[in-house]
Amino acid sequence: MANPAAGYHYGNAPPPQSYGGYTMQQPSAPYGAPPYGMLAPSTFAPGTDPTVIACFQLADQDGSGMIDDIELQRALSSYNQSFQLRTVHMLMYTFTGINTRKIGPKEFTGLFYCLQSWRGIFDRFDRDRSGKIDAPELREALLSIGYAVSPMVLEILLTKYDKTGGSMRAIEYDNFIECCLTVKGLTERFKERDRALTGSATFTYEAFMLTVLPFLVA
């Protein structure tokens, strides 16, 4: 599958950032991974911030050591911010590599610090503190994390993730997270096939479907 935009170049994502001693690494799902799966049990790493552990335990109401998508949505939406279930699913997929509906302490820790990072980026570019960012701000935000999207792609992203209903195209925080995770995830999958960073890659039909579909059905 060749890149349709001549002269288009995606940027390199910045190195993993460390928050509270935890290095934010977002796993890539292997081609051919099952659409749904079960995670192996995990535990909190030594030295994990007690705030992270407390948030997990609060969400894990049945004490099972795992939290499902509804519990995670409830936990994330309890801090003066509403999260759509689709955004929750995208976050879960990002930190597991499979379309599971439950995560454990290890995945929750990564997700917790990832959201702190995205919140900082969103606030930096929401300069008028409106709770949403417009097209130029979105382009700058994506550039700040290493992704230079074309005007055509930017327009598609705004059309997809603008749920504000206003006269000006803009996206709110939870849709911003989903937008960025989609751009990041698809770009990383593309770069796995474009190791020379030429802007072109070859996919089989099945590999292409397995690359794109998880981001559509999360």
UniProtKB/TrEMBL annotation:
Q: Which domain of life is it from?
A: Eukaryota
Note the SUPFAM superfamilies from the entry: EF-hand
- One GO MF term: calcium ion binding
Keywords recorded for this protein, A-Z = Calcium
Q: Which Pfam families match?
A: EF-hand_5 (PF13202), EF-hand_6 (PF13405)
Where the record annotates domain EF-hand, the positions are: 47-82, 113-148
- What protein is this chain from? Probable calcium-binding protein CML49
Species in which this protein is naturally found:
Sesamum indicum
